[in-house]
Specification:
Layout: E1 4-14, E2 24-30, E3 55-57, H1 59-70, E4 76-80, H2 91-99, E5 103-108, E6 122-125, H3 138-150, E7 157-163, H4 166-178, E8 184-188, H5 198-218, E9 225-228, H6 231-236
Parallel strand pairs: 2-4, 4-5, 5-6, 6-7, 7-8, 8-9
Antiparallel strand pairs: 1-2, 1-3
The structure holds S-adenosylmethionine (SAM), ligand 2KA, iron/sulfur cluster (SF4) and magnesium ion (MG).
Length: about 240
Amino acid sequence: MNKFPVLEVFGPTIQGEGMVVGRKTMFVRTAGCDYSCAWCDSAFTWDGSAKEDIERLTADEIIERLLSIGGQQFDHVTISGGNPALLKNLGELIDPLHQRGIEVALETQGSRWQDWFTDIDDLTISPKPPSSKMNTNWLVLDEIIARLKENGRDRHTSLKVVIFNEEDLGYAEEVHERYPDVPFFLQVGNDDLEENQPANLASHLLDQYEWLIDQVVASEKLNRVRVLPQVHALVWGNKRGV
Ligand SMILES: C[S@@+](CC[C@H](N)C(=O)[O-])C[C@H]1O[C@@H](n2cnc3c(N)ncnc32)[C@H](O)[C@@H]1O
Ligand SMILES: Nc1nc2[nH]cc(C(=O)O)c2c(=O)[nH]1
Ligand code: SF4
Ligand SMILES: [Mg+2]
């Protein structure tokens, strides 16, 4: 059995972002990322600050952990990171979850393909805008979207771009124009990762949400889209494990 680097198993909570926002779900957060986004809200997965907390667990051990924390109170698991698409053998976790009647969602940035992408029920691909300081490899992203389409995964796939400024909006327009058939989400960027009062953060993020709505409303290139905040950030602020 392969072992996977795991930093957090938590829930049940709600999916706070994107295509299945509000869905009751457990989370498994893997360690390690091939990016280092300037504003990453989960930098502890790759910046070394939590390296003592990384556990190497088999799929069976992850499922045991999910059941011991979540009991019978869940039927959906979201895998995030870090970039879980770095893990070649993740099918070893996805398949037994499905056998138990549990749906599986996954969050990744679209920098790597894995064959098990076609088994994910709710696959969110989140390419990174200029404010992240990362560069999109369009050929890789083209290939990922094409393969998902070839495999009839359209209804299980979405694109989600986080927006911090007008340049990011231009990038979001570019992504949506390139893949017009893929359900498209614009998400409010959280630029205050140090705020520890949830009410202060919520107030600020709602202002940012209003700004983002205004921008999208005014755009001719962003029509068949959805605009969302991170609901978990509105409710719990910058708290980890929620
Ligand atoms: C922490 S990432 C992990 C999965 C994968 N590495 C990715 O980026 O898609 C999960 C989601 O959080 C988003 N995210 C990260 N930092 C954020 C921030 N400061 N504000 C809003 N969304 C953020 C990412 O864009 C991604 O959609
Ligand atoms: N509630 C909740 N929803 C989320 N959606 C995406 C998350 C992530 O960090 O990938 C996340 C998270 O950490 N918590
Ligand atoms: S790709 Fe995701 S996990 Fe990696 S640095 Fe960017 S936001 Fe963080
Ligand atoms: Mg998060």
